[in-house]
């Protein structure tokens, strides 16, 4: 048995048969990802291995920083793609036992047929062969998805996004997908987190202007905000959206009336920062409002709870958000989660809900809470989502699956 060959992790004949004859031929339906709809619409041909593999991969950025690689060789403008790839090749051996080590070599084998281990000595050979295939072969954005037998991609989209690439793909369907998929569907997912920034007026004002432009409704008033969000909810639905997506440190265990939400929103539009308490109240109001819209349309609601965003002020100031330094939080999840679900259940407007926890200590809590709000209408109406983010590795997956007995 070779490393990462066709028998990787398949320790007996039954496992091999189940994987090859059953699991591997199933289409992939990915309803939460961060792929670029433009890349898929234009069937982007990636410039080189760095562009497809390193340019936007925060997992690799974290590993590089942990290995003492200077930022210039990770995200900097002064170094070349080839120099950044060499830094990655030097780092890969140090990731042994991290899933990144396995993912790296599985991807080299499955997509490029490259069986060499990536290290400094093999970097040039791998770089040249991968780039040859990327330049002339079938490994475009759509080609990669087809090779993985992807049926549906749900991209992550702000209500203020134009959705122009989803519109393009709706007019020109993506044909020729994988071995059991006739065509690839790319649909948006409704992610209105930016509306929660009422504590930072400049940020939320800029976002409201973008929302106003795409909705054709002025969102600087509270009535306008509500109308614009509902208009975009309809627009997303018309393009195949069937889920919203939200991420916060914890669900608020409070809310407010429409009148109070109006004062908070219009105050922020006028330049008055909401207090911490008001931010929580407004978040509670907005999330409940979106949940009711979802219930009315039969959408699912994905709740990604627990991360601490941008904790490193130096990297945040240099690179902005999403620099690869978000981390696990330990906020109390129970009170807000129960408050949110019970409020909606009491008024019979609880949508299908998927709960994701970033902190493994919350596994049992999320599984048990999900079991408390089933209503007999469909199987698993409220469910714990897949092991997420820092738990997306063997030990995390096993612990997460085993905890589902608490439901």
Index terms:
407 residues, alpha/beta, uronate isomerase, domain 2, chain A, 4-stranded mixed β-sheet, 17 helices, globular
**Main sheet: which strands, in order across?**
1-2-4-3
Tell me about the biggest sheet? 4 strands, mixed
Overall average pLDDT: 95
Text of the CATH class of the largest domain = Alpha Beta
Q: How many domains?
A: 2
Low-confidence stretches: none
- β-strand amount: 5-15%
Number of helices: 17
Helix content: 40-55%
Got a strand count? 10
Identify the CATH homologous superfamily of the largest domain: Metal-dependent hydrolases
Helix and strand composition category: alpha/beta
Distance between the termini: 39 Å
User: What pattern of helices and strands is seen along the backbone?
Assistant: HEHHHHHHHEHEEHHEHHEEHEHEHEH
Structure description:
- The chain is an alpha/beta fold and 407 residues long.
- The chain has two domains: 45-139, uronate isomerase, domain 2, chain A, CATH 1.10.2020.10; 193-406, Metal-dependent hydrolases (TIM Barrel).
- 47% of the residues lie in helices and 11% in strands.
- The protein has 17 helices and ten strands.
- It has helices spanning 13-23, 37-41, 49-53, 58-66, 81-91, 99-112, 123-136, 141-147, 164-171, 201-215, 222-238, 258-269, 276-297, 313-319, 334-346, 363-372, 394-403; strands at 28-30, 150-157, 174-175, 183-190, 243-248, 300-305, 307-308, 327-328, 352-357, 382-384.
- A four-stranded mixed sheet has the order 1-2-4-3. Strands 5-6-9-10 form a four-stranded parallel sheet, covered by helices on one side.
- Helix 16 links the parallel strand 9 and strand 10.
- The longest helix has 22 residues, at 276-297.
- The chain is globular, with a radius of gyration of 23 Å.
- It starts with 12 loop residues before the first helix and ends with a helix.
């Amino acid at each position: 048995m070779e490393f990462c060959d066709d028998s990787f992790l398949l320790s007996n004949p039954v496992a091999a048969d189940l994987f090859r004859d059953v699991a591997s031929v199933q289409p992939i339906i990915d309803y939460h990802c961060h792929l670029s709809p433009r890349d898929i619409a234009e069937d982007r041909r990636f410039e080189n291995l760095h562009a497809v593999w390193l340019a936007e991969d925060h997992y690799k950025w974290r590993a590089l920083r942990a290995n003492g690689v200077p930022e210039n060789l990770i995200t900097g403008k002064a170094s070349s793609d080839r120099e950044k790839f060499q830094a990655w090749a030097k780092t890969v051996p140090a990731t042994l036992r991290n899933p990144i080590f396995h993912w790296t070599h599985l991807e080299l084998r499955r997509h490029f047929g490259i069986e060499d281990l990536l290290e400094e000595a093999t970097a040039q050979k791998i770089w040249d062969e991968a780039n040859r295939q990327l330049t002339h072969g079938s490994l475009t954005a759509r080609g990669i998805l087809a090779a993985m037998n992807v049926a549906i991609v749900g991209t992550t989209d702000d209500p203020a996004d134009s959705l122009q690439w989803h519109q393009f793909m709706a007019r020109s369907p993506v044909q020729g997908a994988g071995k059991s998929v006739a065509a690839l569907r790319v649909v948006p997912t409704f992610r209105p987190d930016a509306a929660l920034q009422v504590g930072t007026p400049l940020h939320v004002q800029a976002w409201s202007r973008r929302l106003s432009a795409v909705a054709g409704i002025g969102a600087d008033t509270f009535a306008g905000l509500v109308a614009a969000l509902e208009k975009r909810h309809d627009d997303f639905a018309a393009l195949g959206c069937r889920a919203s997506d939200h991420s916060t440190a914890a669900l608020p265990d409070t809310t407010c009336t429409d009148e109070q939400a109006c004062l908070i929103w219009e105050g922020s539009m006028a330049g008055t920062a909401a207090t911490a308490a008001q931010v929580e109240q407004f978040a509670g109001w907005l999330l409940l409002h979106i949940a009711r819209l979802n219930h009315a349309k039969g959408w699912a609601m994905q709740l990604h709870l627990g991360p601490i965003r941008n904790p490193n002020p130096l990297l945040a100031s240099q690179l902005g958000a999403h620099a690869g330094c978000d981390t696990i939080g330990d906020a109390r999840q129970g009170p807000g989660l129960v408050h949110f679900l019970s409020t909606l259940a009491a008024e019979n407007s609880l949508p299908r809900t998927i709960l994701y926890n970033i902190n493994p200590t919350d596994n049992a809590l999320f599984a048990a809470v999900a079991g408390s709000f089933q209503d007999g209408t469909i199987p698993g109406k409220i469910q714990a989502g897949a092991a997420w983010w820092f738990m997306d590795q063997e030990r995390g997956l096993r612990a997460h699956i085993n905890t589902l007995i608490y439901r």
